[in-house]
Every structure is written in C-alpha cells, then in structure tokens.
Amino acid sequence: MVAMSGGVDSAVAAALLARSGRRVVGVSLRLHDASQQGGAGRCCSPEDFRDARLVAGLLGFPYFVLDYEREFRQAVLSRFVEEYRQGRTPSPCVSCNTAVKFGALLARAREVGASKVATGHYARIRRHPDGRYSLHAAADSSKDQSYFLFGLDQKQLSRSEFPVGELTKAEVRKIARKLGLAVADKPESQDICFVPDGDYRAVIHREAGDLGRAGTIAKRSGEVLGRHGGVAGYTVGQRRGLGVSSGNPLYVLEVHPASGTIVVGSREELMAERLFASGWHWLPGGDPDGPVDGVLKIRHRHPGAPAKVEPLGGGRVRAVFETPQRAVAPGQAAVLYRGSEVVGGGWIEAPTSVMMRPARSPERA
Amino acid sequence: MRVYLDHNAGVPMRREVFEAMRALLLGEPAANASSPHGPGQRARYRIEQAREEIAALIGCEPAEIVFTSGGTEADNLAVLGFMEGRAGGEPAPHVVSTTVEHPAVEECLKSLEERGVRVSRVRVGASGAVDAGEVEASFLPETVLASVMLANNETGAIQPVAEIARRARARGIAVHSDAVQAAGRIPFDVRSLGVDVLSISAHKMGGPQGIGALYLRRGIELAPRLLGGPQERRRRAGTEPAALIAGFGEAARLAREEMGRWEGVTRPLRDRFEGEMTARFPEARFHAAPLRLPNTSSIAFPGHSAEAIVMALDLEGIAVSTGSACSSGAALPSRVLSAMGLPEWEVRSTIRVSFGPSNAEHDVERLLAALGEIVARQSHLTTAAGS
Fold first, then answer.
1. pLDDT value of position A239
2. Which chain A residues are Cβ-neighbours of B318 within 8 angstroms?
C-alpha cells in the first residue's frame, strides 16, 4: 500500500514498486478539508487527489482515497493547536507519521492484506541479520526526512518502505519524467500541509477560538517592550514579527503560557548548553545502559550538533551539547543520530528546571 | 482473471454495441445528422433507428424520446426543465420526492429549494422502499411534480412507481421517475407505469458512456437546459452524437430481446451468494427490499470496515463497491443507507455487490472464497488488537 500525496516523491515511490512487479494499491489520505481553505497544491486538495489518481491510472494499479480526518484531528491537529497555545512549537509531521501514516494506515494495510506501507519519504530502513530494523537518513541529505520518522518502532519499521530513500531529488524527478508522470515538475511543498500560506495563527484561531493568553513582551530584566494578542504562534528563536524595536536585534527566548509573558533578548542569550526531552523513544527498543554520544538535531533544518544523551528513566533524557546551540524550542522534536542511523528521539521540554536557577548555572541542571 | 461485480456503477460494453458504433465511427463518413446531404441523411437514419429501439424497450413512441448526454442530464432536464417557469410563483409550487434519490435528482431538488420551490422528501423504510400511501399523504394542493426513482442504485429496492403515479394522476400531478438502474434490466413500460417523464442511461445496460435519454410523454412541456440548434424537437440543442446513439440503440435492442437474461443469470447468482453468506456469516445483514433488482446485494459485515473489504477484494482482483463517493473521492457514509435509518457503524460496514449477465457461477465462488479469507483476517486482527 503506497500513501500518495499527489506529489512527485510518492508518485515515484509507487511507480518504482509497481514496475518492480509488486502488487500495489495506492491510497491518498484525506486528513482535512482542503477545499474549504483554498489551500490547493499542498495535499488533500481535489487537485492533489487527481494527480495521484492519474499516476495510478497510468501505471494501472487501484487507488483509493481514505478518510482519516478524525484520526488526524485527534492525533495531530488538536495537539498542534494545544501545543502552540501552551507556548510550545509543535512538530505535527512527527505525530502524523507515527499515529496516522504508520499507525492507522498501517493497520488498514494489514486488514486489506497488504504486507507493507510505502511512502515518498526521504529516509532509509535497513534490516539486520538478527532481524532488527534500523532507520537511517536519506542518501540525499538535503532532502532527508528521517527526523520526522523517529517515532517508528521496530514493528512499524518492519512494515514500512521508503523507495526513494536511496535517490536524490533530481533522480526522482528524472525517473518521473521518464515514466511520463504529470507530477514530475510539480513544485515542492514547503509549509505544513494543513496550514495554508504558513499562517499558523489563523489555523490556531480557527480551531481554538483564541491564540492563548495575551500579555507583555519583556526583556529578562523585566523591562516591558510591548504587548501581544496571544502566545500561540511565538517560537523560541523567532526574530521577525515581534512588533517591538530595540537597538539590537531581539529574539524570543521564552514563552510563558500561564502569565502570557514572552521574554525576548539578544542572540547570545538564545544559546543553550543542554536540554531535557520527554516521550523519548529509542529505536532499537529499551533504554541504553548509559549516556549515548551522537549528533542531535533539534529541528528539521538543524544541521545537528554533537551531544551526549543520558536516559533519566520514564522516557526522559538529558542532552548536553559539546557547544551551545541556538534556539532550543520546547515542543520540537530532538532526534539523535549515530552516523546515518536514527537511534532515538523525543520532545523538547520547556526549561522550567533551568529557569528556577540563575541563568548559566554551572554543573548540574 | 478479474471478477467484475459492480454492474450498478457501469456495465461492460457488449461486442455488438461496439460494432454498431464502429460502423459509424470508421465505416461511414462522420456526418452531421442535420446536414441534408447523403452522409448526413445516413447518420439521421441511424439515429432514428436507435430512437425506435429505445422507444420499443420502454414502450413509448419514438417521438417521445429525447437524447441527452446521460442519466444525469436526463434527470436535470426532467426536474429542472419541468419546474422552470413554475418556480417563484405564489403560492410556491411543491414537489414530492424521496430521501434516497440519486444525486442527479437530489441536487436538482436542492437547487429548486433555493429558488423558492417547496420540496417534501418522503422517508423510506428499513428495507429502502418507500410507501405509496406516504407519498400520497404528502401531496398538497400546490404539488405539481412527484419524482421517485424506479430502482435504487445502492440497494436495488424497487419503488412502487406505478401506484404512486396512479394516485398522482388523480390529482393532476406530473410524475418523473429516474429509471437509470432499471432500464434494460427489468421489464417495464412507461404506459403501465403511468409516468410522464422517465430517465434512462445507456452504460447501465451495456451501451456506451455519455449517452442517455428522457422519455417525455406527448403533451408534457419542458424548458430546455441547453440552448442552441433545433435538435431533439428543441428540447436538447447540440449535434447528436450519432455513434453513441447507435450504440445505445443496439444496447436497447439486445436488452429487449434478452430481457429475461438479466433476471435469469443474475438472480440465481445473487441468491446463491446471499444464501452462502447467511450460512457462513450469520452476523451478516442484508438490506433487501421486498421488491428488488435481481442483480443487487447490499450486505453489512458488523464490526468490519466496508472500505477495507473493498480494497482487499480489489487486491484479489474482485471489483465491488461501497457507498457513494464525495468530490475528493473519499468514501463517505452512504446517504441512501443512512436514510434507511441504519446506524453509522452498519452503513460503514456495508458493501454492494451487483452482478451482470456476463457473470457466472465461478465468479460467486471466487467472491465467497476471498470474502471468507478477508473477513477472517480482519476479525483476527481486531481480536488481536482488542486483547
């Protein structure tokens, strides 16, 4: 079963499987009603379904549109809205992959007798002689999406395939052109699929009726620089759109949902030496005995920073960077790599424990 | 070999139909039937021959047949064309229909309501059939039209159109019937039915897609929906697609000559399927009206997702269907089954199997075997997930 968004990557994924003689059924997931948002060309719009359907028609495999609006709302959209209203910066694609594409859809695949779910993600899965599976970054590191897939467990990995993971984007487009797929030159989708034009605040307002608590924009010193209409949508590290001015560029340092205070400061103040994450998932399964050294990515476009990650029990970890990192945003996923392999990941916590202490506390945190 | 069991969505074209069309598409010059020259007259002749075949199939005069682009256009022309000029008056005119009409009628009713027409939709019983007495009870002094389908596409339920027409006629109410699923499959004629307007479609009886017809009783006036040339006695402008019409005529001829075949072939297959299902899956539920198309089976598998069953059958090379689809293509809960008062879980677990005259015993065997495996696997997964 191939999950097809209507874009070129999943189209080529489906084509490669179909041409290799595998029995393929194409599906598109209707996650939200895109027709009411005018958000054509991302996913879930009738145009995208038509594009996916054309690929299925060209290659001659069955194609269905499946309605996962309820699952998507529960597992992804509600959480996205609530996270922002709590002053955090969610990673909805991670929840969507774990709960919808490799959750509900995988279950559906088994029901219909399909052994695997394939997608157009740029990532790789390896099967080891001992029967264990590992998740790896894509061959094309500029397109790598393994960050969004850290939530997959062994069972999910064993039933997933990423046929374009070994290819570069250019190769994918070339294959699409060669096969005569109409989507070969379809532009890349950049924003989150259910957020038209990148306007998070509009989506949050539509869903929740407000933008969380309104309050002040202030420096650490307490100096108030301005006011804002709700914490939702402000992200640690954000510089633009604050509506306050100062001599030096100001960045969001902390978002406090209870008081509605947004703390801003200089670029230097944005640096963090460590983070805590919860809901941590080790892909090989089970906590390691001690700290694990690796490269930690704290957002999708982050190049990754060497760090030591120590399990604290209960799904919590502490990660200490070799060199301080900019803009550690609570709510984002922190994903640990060793070489190309994804070894674990979790959700960055709000730095409450650090806040209690003077800034830059030495030793333990 | 694929097994095709979705004949209510469309019937594979008969070879004879293809040959009849081919003769016009390749053999004769592609002439316009409105042209007075020889080739034009030849095309005209083919069209009029086909019109006679179709008239013979449903028991009317050829002059009472208006060709359209299909069942949907026929329904639109019937409902909107009949009401055109009547809407907006005082008192507001009233139309009676049912809750299980095809979208081609239902959407016209909604459009009429926006223009001030009052519409009553009579509910159906749990089996999908409407009660003629209830239809009559909803007639008002302002009622000008009753539109009731002859056979339902999802359940195969046959509605008491003759009885409704008899009661409507006594009050001077015109009657339209969408007979797209019935025409060419079960014998009927428009005179015995007593209807004034009736829609049919070629591809539901083995003809080509893109052609349908409206029976319009002599004396009934309709406003055309397409304006242009004087074709079809000014009821439907546009050059007649001679090849499509010839194919439709051939399909109608075959349907009339082999009228017993739909019944003779599909009823034993359908009954065998339903009998075996009852024995093997006692929990399966059938939505069977007392009068039903002989080829249609609507069956619910409690606890199972119809969508998953349809996909799994497709992977086994067997084509059946769920309820209606929305614009994005996602299967939405069937409006027809919901209108029958079925709970949502039952609607979402219902598949439709519709046999055709080319099916045979071994198709039923394949379906039964595949359904057995699929239902067992899904039950196993559900149990495993629940424990």
1. 87
2. none
Fold annotation for A211-266: SH3 type barrels. (2.30.30)
Domain boundaries, chain B: 3-10+259-386, 15-257
CA atoms of B193 and B164, how far apart (whole Å): 9
Q: Tell me what percent of the residues of chain A surpass a pLDDT of 70.
A: 93
- The dotted CATH code for B15-257 is 3.40.640.10
Q: Which residues in chain B have Cβ-Cβ distances shorter than 8 Å to A53?
A: 329
Query: Strand ranges (DSSP E) for chain A?
Result: 2-3, 26-30, 63-67, 117-118, 123-127, 133-137, 160-161, 215-219, 224-228, 251-256, 261-265, 271-282, 292-297, 305-313, 316-326, 333-338, 341-348
pLDDT in tens, A101-147: 999 999 999 989 999 999 999 999 999 999 999 999 999 999 999 99
Residue A361 has pLDDT above 60, yes or no: no
Four-point Cα dihedral A54, A157, A104, A280, nearest 10: -130
* pLDDT tens track for A46-85: 788 888 999 999 998 999 999 899 999 999 999 999 999 9
Does this complex have an ipTM over 0.90? no
The answer as to CATH 3.90.1150.10 being correct for domain B3-10+259-386 is yes
- On chain A, the residues whose CB falls within 8 A of the CB of B315 are 23, 25, 62, 112-114
The pLDDT of residue A329 is above 80: yes
Nearest CA in chain A to B333: A67
Radius of gyration of chain A from its Cα atoms, rounded to whole angstroms: 21
Cα B162 → chain centroid: 17
* More reliable by pLDDT, A304 or A193: A304
Q: What is the pLDDT of residue A42?
A: 53
Secondary structure tally for chain A: helices H, strands E = 10, 17
Question: Residues for chain A: how many in total?
Answer: 365
Instruction: For B336-357, write each residue's pLDDT tens digit.
Output: 999 999 999 999 899 999 999 9
Entry pTM? 0.80
Instruction: Name the interface residues of A facing B (CB cutoff 8 Å).
Output: 23, 25, 27-28, 30, 35, 44, 46, 49, 53, 62, 64-67, 107-108, 110-114
Return the domain boundaries, chain A.
2-196, 211-266, 271-355
**Rounded Cα distance, A322 and A343, in Å:** 18
Hey, what CATH class is A2-196 in?
alpha beta
Say which of B314, B328, B381 has its CB closest to residue A111.
B381
The kind and range of the H/E element at B318 are strand B318-319
**CATH homologous superfamily for the domain A271-355:** Translation factors (2.40.30.10)
